[in-house]
Amino acid sequence: MLKGKKIVLGITGSIAAYKACTLIRLLIKQGAEVQVVITPAGKEFVTPITLSALTHKPVVSEFFNQRDGSWHSHVDLGLWADAMLIAPCTASTLGKMAHGIADNMLITTYLSMKAPVLVAPAMDLDMYAHVSTQENLRLLQQRGVTVVEPGSGFLASTLEGKGRMQEPERIVEELEEFFARREGRLRGQRILITAGPTYEKLDPVRFIGNYSSGKMGIALAKECLNQGADVELVLGPCSEPLPHSSLLHVTRVESASDMYQAATRLFADCTAGIMCAAVADFTPDTCAEEKIKREGDQLVLRLTPTQDIAAAVGRMKTSAQKLCGFALETHNALVHAKEKLQRKNLDMIVMNNLQDAGAGFQVDTNKVTIITSEQQESLPLQSKKDVAREIINRFLS
Ligand code: CTP
Question: What average pLDDT does this structure show over 180-196?
Fold first, then answer.
């Protein structure tokens, strides 16, 4: 996502400067080019030699090159960059930025910057909470600077540690989201995704469920986020980690009925829907109030059909909206999938065949056939991440 992006990374004098090394490695791994500008105080914490080795570029810190006296042009850097990220950013640098005190190369670069600017504050809690710091942050935000919120303490219930620079992984995610929002192919779209299994309660301790891990639906959500869309994720019970993004809105549900309520409520405001959840087709007639006891020779459960969420959303669909479903089949796969495409009023259906090795539940790979009314295309076995990209690029082209 950051492929080819030119990032000016400003480093200031905070103990968190050591994290700038990890940050650089992550940015470069994502395909970005990084030019470091460091303040004199920053050099007390991390050496330019380390930074230039990581970025493969000389570090800029003085107004003049010490060797030959040539002028370092902050104006050129301002034109070169796609974004300027100051991480860690001290209270002092925030103050100088807010008030235009250009006494070092980093601030002059900031003042000449044509590209958007992000800051990741790093300081102790008292300094962060001080009215001067908060006022400076507010001034900078008013001028369009994006603030990467500092991390909170080890214990979420205490404020301890608030002010500590956000972890490099999160900073990179925020930067990716920043570019996705501005440039992503799907910016302005809102996509409903159902994902994971559903649990149908039998009694206070038991349920009928299925083996879905939620991995495919979450991979689809990540791809939509990477391309700048807002995502409404309606997620059944699963422990798969979710991406951090302000574009992501998660509604956690348990049963098919909860998922139906959430999905049909949210779809009206969406431009497209992807029904990836493995929804129970039947639910117990009643949920026992007490734990069902081991009594008698057999236990007979009476089940009633659940509502078909995809079909309901298909009926709501307007000509401006698109809908993609999944079909999990074990036999006669193509015939069944094509029938579901029609019956549920879908524009596309992604067929999984559980007979294919590496496809389906719990694994990180998938092998799918993408079917529309005009054509069908079988994709090779690949990671769910790659499958997600292929689906999104075809579905939302
Ligand atoms: N689906 C749904 N709500 C249900 C059942 C299924 O939204 N109650 C959606 C799934 O998310 C998927 C598509 O319908 O996108 C097909 O699901 P699948 O289980 O393959 O098909 P069913 O319609 O349940 O038919 P069957 O179980 O008979 O194959």
Answer: 95
Distance CA 328, CA 222 (A): 22
**What is the per-residue pLDDT for 111?**
95
Domain architecture of the chain: domains with CATH = 6-182 (3.40.50.1950), 186-395 (3.40.50.10300)
Nearest CA to ligand 1 atom 16: 327
How many CA within 13 A on the CB side of residue 339? 7
Residue 240 and residue 246: Cα distance in Å, rounded?
18
Q: What's the pTM?
A: 0.85
Residue 115 is given by DSSP the state: S
pLDDT number for residue 49:
96
Q: Is 110 in the pocket of ligand 1 (CB under 6 A)?
A: no
* Dist CA 36 CA 365 (whole Å): 38
Q: Does 366 qualify as catalytic in the annotation?
A: no
Among residues 286, 288, 277, which one has the least CA distance to residue 304? 286
**Ligand 1 midpoint to CA 102 (Å):** 62
pLDDT value of residue 155: 43
